[in-house]
Design goal:
- The protein is built from seven helices and two strands; from the N terminus they run ααααβαβαα.
- The chain has about 120 residues and is mainly α.
- It has a two-stranded parallel ribbon.
- The longest helix has 14 residues.
- The radius of gyration is 17 Å and the shape is globular.
Length: about 120
């Protein structure tokens, strides 16, 4: 499938990472996408996915579930302002921002991401 070729994946990752991906990163994403049936499954996901308005998440707040939102300051896919709105909406939430990251801090800044996550989990004990 033309959308699942190396140049497309490279562009996709560059946008998500906020930097050029390495060849290893591109290959890591490309390999599973080339499995039989994957292009059709991805199209099904895109065609059937929906967006949830933030206001519907107010129900979560009533459950008093501690929520950690980890955001990249340079995320162009989901703006930091959206995270700030969610933090204000959910009383039991914390917005942590990784300064040099874009949309995928769990991949590009995994050390900082993991540290924030571990601190959050430890605080719940």
């Amino acid at each position: 499938h033309v959308l699942l070729r190396e140049p497309r994946i490279e562009g996709f990752l560059a946008s998500a990472y906020g930097r050029e991906p390495s060849g290893k990163e591109v290959a890591g994403y490309l390999a599973p996408l080339q499995l039989p049936g994957t292009p059709g499954a991805l199209l099904d996901i895109v065609n059937t996915s929906t967006s949830t308005p933030p206001q519907t998440l107010e129900r979560i707040d009533s459950l008093k579930i501690p929520v950690l939102m980890i955001w990249g300051r340079h995320d162009t896919w989901v703006p930091l302002e959206d995270g700030k709105q969610l933090e204000a909406l959910l009383g039991e939430s914390r917005l942590a921002v990784i300064e040099d990251a874009a949309h995928c801090p769990m991949e590009t800044h995994w050390q900082a991401f993991n540290q924030l996550l571990l601190e959050h989990l430890e605080a719940q004990r």
